[in-house]
Amino acid sequence: MPTMPPPLSLLLFSLSLLLLSLSSQAQTPASSGQTVTINPTFRFQNPSLRRAYYALQTWKKFAIFSDPFNQTGNWIGPDVCHYNGVFCAPSPSDSSLNVVAGIDLNHADIAGYLPPELGLLSDLALFHINSNRFCGVVPPTFKRMKLLFELDLSNNRFVGHFPAVVLKLPLSSTWISGSMTSKAPFLQRYLTSLWMPYFLTITV
Ligand SMILES: *[C@@H]1O[C@H](CO)[C@@H](O)[C@H](O)[C@H]1NC(C)=O
Q: Which of 40, 49, 58, 93 is the least crowded, having the fewest Cβ atoms under 10 Å away?
């Protein structure tokens, strides 16, 4: 069996240390503790859109503090597919189901944070929030987004290192590119050198 050259094994060792330290932080709650009440007269085409309503309303009501261009102004009522910046498409696993497949709030200058409930948007393929004022961390619940292939978090105010949860996305299917600002440059280099069958573009 060929042995790995020392730099690579060192790198993998560091990566596993990092993953260990990240998993010990993973006790973050799956909900923000604040609850949106769904109007009982609202009808949703399917349970996925109902969950999306819950996630988006939690974001708007409890985790968005300033929205200077009124981007979320029309995030009202059960028809989430007509909300600004929210895009629906047939689910890849069942084309008869319309699901929230994309969020694009680039350049909206919104201040707030990403609540754990966003993990309910488990059909998301694109999540673009570049050039806003989001702070805090990327919630660990993002690992539920198994279809995510474009994640653009650049030009926000997130704290800390390379977002831990990004490593828990379906990395078996990942090509990571983009400009990553990480306090762990070795990790950046490692991530940008991964080559796997599908594409995930991450910009943080
Ligand atoms: C924001 O948008 C909503 C819906 O389009 C509108 O009703 C509301 O008046 C707008 N608010 C401001 C401050 O422009």
A: 40
The alpha carbon of 70 and the centre of ligand 1 are apart by a number of angstroms equal to 6
Where are the chain's structural domains?
36-159
Residue 122 Rama label (left phi>0; alpha psi -120 to 50; beta): alpha
> Could you give the CA distance from residue 62 to residue 198 in angstroms, rounded to a whole number?
35
Residues framing ligand 1 (Cβ under 6 A): 70, 73-74
Pick the atom of ligand 1 nearest to 76's CA: 4
Ligand 1 nearest-atom number relative to CA 74: 4
* Length of the chain as a residue count: 204
Write down the pTM of the prediction: 0.75
Which residue has a Cα nearest atom 12 of ligand 1?
70
pLDDT in tens, 138-192: 888 888 888 887 888 888 888 765 566 666 665 433 444 444 444 344 444 444 4
Cα(91) to centroid of ligand 1, in Å? 31
